[in-house]
Amino acid sequence: MAFKVAALLSIFMLTYLLAPLVITSESSYPISLLVYNSLTNENNLTFTTNIAYRGILLGAMRNIQTVNNNFRFTTKEDPNYGPFLVSVNGLAGDNEKHTYWQLLIQPQNGTIIIADVGVGCYIPNPNDTVILKFTEW
Ligand code: B12
Predict the structure, then answer these.
(1) What residue stretches are annotated with the Transcobalamin-like C-terminal domain (predicted)?
(2) Sheet containing 29-37: which strands, arranged edge to edge?
(3) Residue nearest to atom 15 of ligand 1 (CA)
(4) pLDDT tens, N- to C-terminus, the chain (137 residues)
(5) CA dihedral angle for residue 93, residue 82, residue 34, residue 135, rounded to 10 degrees
(6) Which of 44, 93, 112, 127 is the most buried (most CB within 10 A)?
(7) Ligand 1 centroid to 84 CA: how many Å?
């Protein structure tokens, strides 16, 4: 009997000590992705996904591509800066026409900022809307 009580007490103690570790462990969070062509009047597309805790935007884009047929993209590896976003849904930037896919971030407060790194380096914050904007430079 005493053994059973001791065993039960140990289980309670362990649960009590380990619960905070489990509860505070970081988990994934939602972000949205908006595809916007500023050069035509094509409809915008919006996607949502969960991104790993401090995961990179490229990972989130791959997740969306895996589960959604309406989102396809290609990148080209740059030796210095990693992946350059070349095309979205078959539409590619063009050096001669001076067009490209610009990377914009809209946090929950609504202010739109231009990302200062590419898709392989950018780490979205929870509930960010990432805007892929086809535009001219
Ligand atoms: C010109 C330029 C551009 C042009 C390039 C097109 C062209 N044909 O000129 C355009 C406007 C397309 C561009 C876009 C972007 N750029 Co830019 N760009 C530059 C700039 C001012 C000069 C690059 C250059 O001509 N070097 C000289 C040539 C001879 O060397 P190169 O190796 O061949 O250059 C190529 C690469 O730099 C590449 N490139 C340019 N920008 C970027 C960004 C990324 C992420 C990648 C992978 C490659 C890449 O395009 C160049 C021409 O082919 C640099 C800053 C600098 N002073 O170096 C920033 C710079 C490289 N760009 C930067 C960024 C952040 C971007 C964007 C992500 C901005 C955005 N929010 O949209 C986008 C890329 C989006 C995407 N589609 O992936 C950052 C990269 C930092 C990083 N660690 O990721 C830099 C360093 C500026 C900064 N903020 O400090 N860019």
Answers:
(1) 57-135
(2) 45-51, 29-37, 129-136, 99-106, 113-114
(3) 102
(4) 565 655 555 554 545 445 544 444 579 999 999 999 999 989 999 999 999 999 999 999 999 999 999 999 999 999 999 999 999 999 999 999 999 999 999 999 989 999 999 999 999 999 999 999 999 99
(5) -30
(6) 93
(7) 8
Ligand 1: atom nearest CA of 137 is 11
Question: How remote is the CA of residue 70 from the centroid of ligand 1, in Å?
Answer: 27
Tell me whether residue 73 is exposed, middle or buried, using C-beta atoms within 10 angstroms of its C-beta: 0 to 12, 13 to 18, 19 or more. Answer: buried
Q: CB count, 10 Å around CB of 133? A: 19
Q: Whole-model pTM? A: 0.89
